[in-house]
Amino acid sequence: MLLWNGKLVEEEQVRVSYRDRGYYFGDGIYEVFRLYNGILFEKEAHLDRLYNSLREIKIELQWSREQLSGMVDELAATLGQQDGILYIQFTRGEAKRAHIFPEVCEAVMLGYCEPLVRPADLIENGIEAITLEDIRWLRCHIKSLNLLANTLAKQEAVEAGAKEAILIRSNDTVTECTASNLLIVKDGVIYTHPNGNLILDGITKQVVKRLAHQLDIPYVEQAFGKQQLLDADEVFLTSTTMEATPIISIDGRPVGTGTPGAVTRRLQVAYVELVEQLVRQGSSSVS
Known about the structure:
- The chain is of the alpha+beta class.
- The chain contains 8 helices and 15 strands.
- 34% of the residues are buried.
């Protein structure tokens, strides 16, 4: 089942118009929610970010937040008690092709769920990454459908035998990865780029920040350069699907000892405990 303009429908009932501005302009936003055992993780934070993106590109919905929240719950229920993702996007709507916003236009909604097994091997053992110049636009805090620069960088990473690309602005500022936030650890302190227009405020990064405070791990939002990245004791990324995943080599050079570090491990343990607590609470509420 898909969520199409406010209703759950069969896939064959969905018809995207060739006049949809998302199709020819990428004029829209999206959000990806994580489900553990069928339970939405950090639902309200994801909705907050979704509405922030909508405001940033001036899309108004014909549904209230309460209505949308209910639709998300209804869509999530179609997955059953599985691990997976819930994807939802909104475009400005259908209109004759013109750069200026149409005077009359209704947003188009599309959402779906699909199973996704937790990538335990990558989370446990870490991944390789490369560095690339960050050539994206200057409004990366918007979760926009315009992801061509991200996909090109991700493809370059894969072709180089890596799983992810770490993006660096021309002024030597390390920002984030193609589909995840980036954090480094030096002398027991976590550093990550501050929120702003150059990065997406990741929901998983928000969770990691809370966990770091609970574990008394110093957490500093401060820009850093490539040399600081390469000199870090630990490097890890955060994302909805990858949780907190160690990066064990960058451009073919080992990070620290070349194995996941102690700070990253502590955060991973706390993250799993948080998810398990969510599942237990969800299971008890259903029973």
